[in-house]
TrEMBL record:
This is Beta-xylosidase. It comes from Streptomyces filamentosus. Residues 1-33 form the signal peptide. Keywords: Signal. It comes from the Bacteria. InterPro entries: TAT_signal.
């Protein structure tokens, strides 16, 4: 019995030594070093922290200076956008005080980032259970945590480091909370949030799609700004023609105009608010053809052939994409390819088109992987002979707000057949619970 008791006391003392060393490491501010490129343009700041070691460690509260940086993936979001936040402890203030080495992957950090300025509150951030072995009396590395918030207010939003906690999974499950002694900590990052984009719901209809020079065409507009002056004008490709008039919308934002079309160059009609064309405050172009009514010479016959305008349509090769698997504990990019999309623009008018996409969160056994973690690299090829050139959208996040896959510009005559593709990449956090995660990517042609 005496031998058994001695072994138990010795084991408890070893546990206490290990736990005490871990607690001091946390007070110094550390676990995993943040990569250099995580800082970006954010400012590194120092602040005093007070950490409470687990009671079993037998160590009093410890104060030390923590150096940290808060960075974001989007410094100019709009209201409604989701912003990813990274909170990194970059320079601990102490090192391992004992000769006992600490093993790898025993520390899991979590914390808060404090929002100020135009939007107040906190952002919950977490980090993976991952740290390199720490030798006895060796320096402690740092650690990084990530989270996200939704922008609800326009203006300058500040981000500052907040309290954090280290969960220790070594011999026992213990927590060491660390608080900012003189809150708030200095501001490390600032984002400038803009107002939410307002969808343009203005519409335009023509009473006829063609007519002889001098014929008036009925132009009907809806969902414009109520009681506002609107310019109704002909378009010759991307330029305005000589056919023009102004009207004032009614109390519901509608109007009816009788535009006299004389200019034989007119190929379409638009309407807009303000002093010049603005896609956000206008509608159209709607295709219109000026018919040549020159009298037929004596003993002649006028021959007319008609080319019927078709439709703007979109099809896709399939409705499911299986992204590559990633390993639990490693995470990283789950990659794949968008099912090929084909756009056929057989309208024959002056209007271009665009295809946009937006995605939901990916839900699965471990909850949700944010929609902002899906990125794509678009590509677009026009079939030989197509009047329009196709422009691929920018590579980057898709998210719930949406992004452009491809588009064509307005022109004198537009149209063609186009093949749209995109490489897909979902950034899966390292310790996402195993299982399948599914999101829905919706494409819209307009």
């Amino acid at each position: 019995m005496a031998f058994t008791r001695t072994r138990a006391v010795t084991r408890r003392r070893r546990w206490t030594a290990v736990l005490g060393a871990t607690a001091l490491a946390v007070a110094a501010g550390g676990a995993l070093a943040a990569p250099a490129n995580a800082v970006g343009s954010a400012q590194s700041v120092d602040f005093t922290t007070r950490c409470i070691p687990p009671a079993i460690a037998g160590i009093p509260p410890i104060e030390g200076t923590t150096t940290a940086v808060v960075s974001v993936d989007n410094k100019a979001p709009k209201v409604g956008d989701t912003v990813k936040v990274t909170y990194s402890i970059t320079k601990p203030a102490a090192s391992n005080p004992v000769d006992l080495a600490l093993p790898a992957d025993i520390l899991t950090p979590s914390g808060k980032v404090v929002l100020g300025g135009a939007q107040t509150g906190t952002v919950t951030v977490t980090g993976p259970r991952k740290n390199p072995p720490v030798p006895g009396k060796g320096a402690f590395p740092g650690f990084s945590m990530t989270g996200s918030f939704t922008v609800t207010q326009a203006g300058a939003i500040t981000l500052a480091p907040g309290d954090y906690n280290i969960h220790t999974s070594y011999l026992m499950e213990l927590d060491t909370p660390c608080t900012v002694l003189n809150p708030p900590a200095p501001v490390s990052e600032t984002v400038q949030a803009g107002d939410q984009s307002v969808p343009n719901e203005r519409t335009l209809e023509l009473g006829a799609t063609s007519g002889a020079p001098g014929v008036r065409v009925t132009v009907t507009g809806a969902r414009f700004t109520p009681l506002t002056e609107v310019t109704v004008v002909g378009r010759a490709g991307a330029a305005e023609s000589a056919d023009r008039m102004t009207v004032t919308t009614d109390s519901e934002g509608g109007f009816t105009a009788r535009l006299k079309v004389n200019d034989r160059a007119t190929t379409g009609i638009v309407a807009y608010e303000g002093t010049g064309w603005n896609a956000e405050k206008g509608a159209g172009p709607i295709a219109y053809q000026v018919v040549d009514d020159t009298p037929t010479p004596p003993n002649s016959q006028r021959l007319t052939a008609t080319v019927r305008a078709g439709e703007l349509s979109m099809t896709q090769a399939g409705d499911a994409v299986a992204l590559s698997a990633v390993d639990f504990g490693q995470g990283g990019a789950a990659t794949g390819a968008l099912q090929t999309v084909t756009v056929k623009d057989f309208r024959g008018g002056p209007a271009g088109w665009s295809v946009t996409g937006k995605v939901t969160d990916f839900t699965g056994p471990g909850g949700a992987i944010g929609a902002d973690r899906l990125s794509w690299t678009p590509a677009c090829v026009a079939k030989e002979g197509s009047p329009s050139a196709c422009t691929a959208g920018s590579a980057g996040p898709v998210g719930t707000g949406g992004a452009t896959l491809a588009s064509t510009e307005n022109g004198t005559v537009t149209g063609g057949e186009f093949t749209l593709d995109a490489g897909l990449s979902l950034d899966v956090p390292a310790f996402t619970a195993p299982g399948g995660y599914t999101g829905v990517l919706t494409l819209t042609l307009s």
